[in-house]
Structures are given as structure tokens and as C-alpha cells.
Amino acid sequence: ILVILNHAGGVIWKFQLYQVVSNYYLFLAFLYDSKRNQSGQTFQYDAFISYNTLDEAWVMEELIPKLEG
Q1: b/e for 10-49, b at 16 or more Cβ within 10 A?
Q2: pLDDT score for 54
Q3: Rg of the chain's alpha carbons, rounded to an integer?
Q4: Where are the chain's structural domains?
């Protein structure tokens, strides 16, 4: 019986791994967001920056300080 339960658990784990991992990261995002909200910081905008690694220096030195300032 233990072998059957172990095998069944492995099959379920394999097919539910994506769900487990995505729920884990969702939980981490929730913790991060709640921690950030407790700090009292308010933001007017939220930005996502997509850039090439060749432009990384410009983004870090020029763009981000202007966005945060």
C-alpha cells in the first residue's frame, strides 16, 4: 500500500508541480506587496522597463534616476 501511495503521490506531484510553483510565487508576491505597503511609500506610477543588455548602463545611469527622481 505504501508503494501505491508513493507512486500516486509522485504522479500527482508531477502534474501539479506548475500549480504548486505558481502558488508559491504568488504567495511571495503577496508578502512583498504587504511589506511594501507597510513602509508607507506611495507611488504615483509603476513602470516596467524592457531593454537590451547593451543599453543596461544607460538605463541604470540615466533612465532610472530620472524615473525615481
Answers
A1: eeeeeeeeeeeeeeeeeeeeeeeeeeeeeeeeeeeeeeee
A2: 92
A3: 21
A4: 2-68
Please write the tens of the pLDDT for every residue from 17-56. 888 889 999 999 898 888 766 766 676 777 888 888 899 9
Closest CA to 63 of 47, 41, 43, 40: 47
* Residue 3 grid cell: 508503494
Cell numbers at 65, concatenated: 534616476
Contact 53, 45 (CB under 8 A): no
Cα within 13 Å of Cα(51), Cβ side: 13
